[in-house]
Amino acid sequence: MPKILGIDLGTTNSCMAVIEGGQPKVIENKEGARTTPSVVAASKTGERLVGQLAKRQSVVNPENTLYSVKRLIGRRWADSEVQHDLKVLPYKVGQQGAGVKVVMGAKDHTPQEISAMVLQKLKADAEAFLGEPVTEAVITVPAYFDDSQRQATKDAGEIAGLKVSRIINEPTAAALAYGFDKKKGGKIAVYDLGGGTFDVSVLDIADDTVEVKATNGDTHLGGDDFDRRVIAWVIAEFKKQEGIDLSKDILALQRIKEAAEKAKIELSTSVETEINQPFITSDAAGPKHLVMKITRAKLEELVGDLVDKTLEPCRKALADAKLGVGDIAEVVMVGGMTRMPLVLQTVEKFFGKKPNISVNPDEVVAIGAAVQAGVLQGERDMAADNKPLGRFMLDGIPPAPRGVPQI
Fold this sequence. Notes:
Order of helices and strands: EEEEEEHEHEEEHEHEHEEEHHEEHHEHH
CATH architecture of the largest domain: 2-Layer Sandwich
């Protein structure tokens, strides 16, 4: 039976997994990485670049490099979110009917078409890895996505040549990856700090069901904001040392952007790291090298307010779910930024318990999507031979508490 791919189609990065031998397995892309940047670009020669290749040239080719397209998918032109994004995205976003279009290489595309290009790469890389065709997928979306955004995500999958057998919520996928659906019920919080967005969801798990009780967040807070703080600090320090402002030098900026992201990641496991970019620029005296140390304490000083900004959505989500922090049995961490020690300490202090980071936070949502795909393939004990053959509408049942209606 062909495998169903579990896909976390992220704002900044995407990840994919399948069930092999009853266990979820993350699939590496052709570059050997376990995550793929959700970035598409048209190069100066008109070649389409997807993933790391597109990301690598984003600063030198900003008007033809499309990223964070997930912010626009399924949205109407009049939406306040779209109007906000128009001000911050470097590429052209326009109106197409009531919806949105983006421009890349002088061609108009819908956000669905751009997302489909990312999905096509994931599909091709999965086929190369597995050595067999992949035609079906389970794709995750944020819990707050409305019907239009969910349908647009499904459309993107179909444009990419994938039958989307299920769209599931990202926090639900995280719960499935941890196997909470098979454990004794309870309330869990999913704290998801990714590259471009922050979400917190409160889930109620009982009787093999996962229900999203409340969700909140900030769609413009993520790892990219942390990177920008480090980049600004590096530019300011270099100006102090050498009297040269690198903020207008796009080739230098591309290198600083990559070095800042790398330093931020390294400071999750080290207390100090070095940013070293030789021949970053030159003046009349000759070439200049960028060499500076940054400590974890300096990083925390630069981004502390961003970490604190995640707490208000946590308070609001708990209030919406009519729960206190003491009602939360487990806090699950999702997204690469949750590896940062300051984030872990802040979350532990707020919830009064150590957050669970035992499943790789970059991969947990894709793993959960693969677990759901395994259910659809009948690979779970509870769902033997559960390959869907069709759908039907079961209606006429009056609303009642869970477990009361008997069919």
